[in-house]
Amino acid sequence: MLSKNIKNALIIAVVVGTILNTINSYDVIWEGDFTFRNTLRIVFTYITPFCVSLYSSTLASKSFEKTTIKNTVTSK
User: Fold this and answer.
1) Does the CA dihedral 60-65-69-75 come out positive or negative?
2) Are 53 and 8 a contacting pair, CB within 8 Å?
Protein backbone atom coordinates (compact mmCIF):
# COMPACT_ATOMS: atom_id res chain seq x y z
CA MET A 1 0.00 0.00 0.00
CA LEU A 2 1.19 3.44 -0.80
CA SER A 3 1.56 5.92 2.01
CA LYS A 4 -0.25 8.42 -0.23
CA ASN A 5 -3.32 6.16 -0.22
CA ILE A 6 -3.25 5.95 3.58
CA LYS A 7 -2.84 9.72 3.95
CA ASN A 8 -5.77 10.39 1.60
CA ALA A 9 -7.91 7.78 3.37
CA LEU A 10 -7.19 9.46 6.72
CA ILE A 11 -8.21 12.86 5.39
CA ILE A 12 -11.41 11.45 3.91
CA ALA A 13 -12.17 9.57 7.13
CA VAL A 14 -11.81 12.73 9.21
CA VAL A 15 -13.98 14.84 6.90
CA VAL A 16 -16.69 12.26 6.15
CA GLY A 17 -16.64 10.80 9.67
CA THR A 18 -17.08 14.22 11.23
CA ILE A 19 -19.99 15.05 8.93
CA LEU A 20 -21.68 11.71 9.60
CA ASN A 21 -21.11 11.94 13.36
CA THR A 22 -22.55 15.44 13.37
CA ILE A 23 -25.63 14.17 11.57
CA ASN A 24 -26.09 10.90 13.45
CA SER A 25 -24.66 11.50 16.94
CA TYR A 26 -25.02 15.21 17.58
CA ASP A 27 -27.24 14.55 20.61
CA VAL A 28 -24.67 12.23 22.20
CA ILE A 29 -21.86 14.71 21.59
CA TRP A 30 -23.92 17.72 22.72
CA GLU A 31 -25.17 16.06 25.92
CA GLY A 32 -21.91 14.24 26.65
CA ASP A 33 -23.73 10.88 26.94
CA PHE A 34 -20.72 8.75 26.03
CA THR A 35 -21.70 5.19 26.85
CA PHE A 36 -19.62 2.32 25.46
CA ARG A 37 -22.17 1.72 22.71
CA ASN A 38 -22.27 5.40 21.68
CA THR A 39 -18.49 5.66 21.68
CA LEU A 40 -18.19 2.51 19.60
CA ARG A 41 -20.71 3.88 17.11
CA ILE A 42 -18.74 7.13 16.81
CA VAL A 43 -15.46 5.26 16.29
CA PHE A 44 -16.95 3.01 13.61
CA THR A 45 -18.31 6.08 11.86
CA TYR A 46 -14.69 7.16 11.32
CA ILE A 47 -13.34 3.68 10.54
CA THR A 48 -15.88 2.93 7.80
CA PRO A 49 -14.99 5.77 5.38
CA PHE A 50 -11.29 5.11 6.05
CA CYS A 51 -11.62 1.46 5.03
CA VAL A 52 -13.79 2.22 1.99
CA SER A 53 -11.44 4.95 0.77
CA LEU A 54 -8.31 2.88 1.32
CA TYR A 55 -9.81 -0.15 -0.40
CA SER A 56 -11.00 1.79 -3.44
CA SER A 57 -7.75 3.75 -3.85
CA THR A 58 -5.71 0.55 -3.55
CA LEU A 59 -7.81 -1.11 -6.25
CA ALA A 60 -7.47 1.97 -8.46
CA SER A 61 -3.69 2.02 -7.98
CA LYS A 62 -3.39 -1.66 -8.85
CA SER A 63 -5.59 -1.20 -11.90
CA PHE A 64 -3.49 1.76 -13.03
CA GLU A 65 -0.28 -0.25 -12.57
CA LYS A 66 -1.67 -3.14 -14.63
CA THR A 67 -2.78 -0.77 -17.39
CA THR A 68 0.61 0.97 -17.42
CA ILE A 69 2.50 -2.33 -17.57
CA LYS A 70 0.19 -3.64 -20.30
CA ASN A 71 0.61 -0.48 -22.40
CA THR A 72 4.39 -0.56 -21.94
CA VAL A 73 4.63 -4.18 -23.07
CA THR A 74 2.28 -3.61 -26.02
CA SER A 75 4.10 -0.52 -27.29
CA LYS A 76 7.48 -2.33 -27.54
Assistant:
1) positive
2) yes
Q: Which residues contact 21 (CB under 8 A, 6 or more apart)?
A: 29, 42, 45, 46
- Residue in 44, 49, 55, 59 with CA at minimum distance from that of residue 12: 49
- Average pLDDT of the chain to the nearest whole number: 88
Helix (H) or strand (E) holding 74: helix 36-75
Q: Supply the angle between the helices 3-31 and 36-75 in degrees, to the nearest 10.
A: 160
Per-residue pLDDT at 6 exceeds 90: yes
Mean pLDDT over residues 24-47, rounded?
93
Asked whether the whole model's pTM tops 0.90, one would answer no
